[in-house]
Amino acid sequence: MCIPMSDSMYPHQKRLKQLERELKNYLIDEESIEVDDYQIGQTADGFIFRGGVFPKTRNRFNAKVTTAVKISFPIVGKSISLLEDALRLSKLDHPNLIRLLAVSQLSFSVFRPMIALEWLPGGTLADYFVYKIREKDDSDRSPIQLKDMLSILYQVSQALKYIHSQLDEFGQELTHGRILTRNVLITEPDLKKCEVKLGDFGEAPSGLEYTTPIVAYMPPEILCCAERVPPHRPENDVWMFGVFIWECLTLGAQPHFRKSVEDIKK
């Protein structure tokens, strides 16, 4: 099937070709990625659905691998950003980072790229705090040991340490930019047994993308920066990790609860 490239994609054609070459080992045809109706989340780049990837075998429909499928918003900048994130993920290998599994071949000729990511059935840490802790009666609430929470914090810190040890194409340290409980996924809804993985690897949001949940994690040097897209450095990740620690130790309390973006900046 041949689908013409959107006119607005032409200025980015050279970069798209580079991304396609570098991601060639992950490319699969669109029929090998399945997207369910169940939306499990939304990020700065697009929507995340539950789905699956089928291996290239004769009996492939009997061997579907459950995945999270991320589809970009129909905006050129978001489409490119999603593919850039996929490329970064493809070069990272750590047990506490979500793995890239596949990229749709059509991602480089249509307006909305689609990538398949590792699926963790336990959901996000944010959802765990809401549905297993805060919405439960005291008698039904699962007890949480400090050592279990420290284990989660340690695993996320190791993922962050690994990211900061890697360099991008310009020789700069990689950063994460989105260290939030809703971006930390767990293998099962039991903090005593679960492993955690840091997901939604990408750049920190630009000034136009600031929303209260993101701003609540941002360091002052980012919030008060005069640049439209302030540089995000490893030390900014460390600040965000500090807010993440506070959120975990308060079992999901929201930083700067009910404060507006302007109030937080003050």
Give a structural overview.
Residues 1-5 and 202-211 have low confidence and may be disordered. This protein has helices at 13-22, 76-90, 125-134, 146-164, 212-215, 220-223, 234-249, 261-265, and strands at 27-28, 33-42, 46-53, 65-72, 100-104, 114-118, 184-186, 196-198. The strands form two sheets. Strands 1-5-6-4-3-2 form a six-stranded mixed sheet, with helices on one face. The protein folds into two domains: 7-118, Phosphorylase Kinase, domain 1 (2-Layer Sandwich); 125-265, Transferase(Phosphotransferase) domain 1 (Transferase(Phosphotransferase), domain 1). 30% of the residues are buried. With 266 residues, it is an alpha+beta fold. The longest helix is centred in the middle third of the chain and has 19 residues, at 146-164.
Summarize the structure.
This protein has eight helices and eight strands, in the order αββββαββααββαααα. It is an alpha+beta fold.
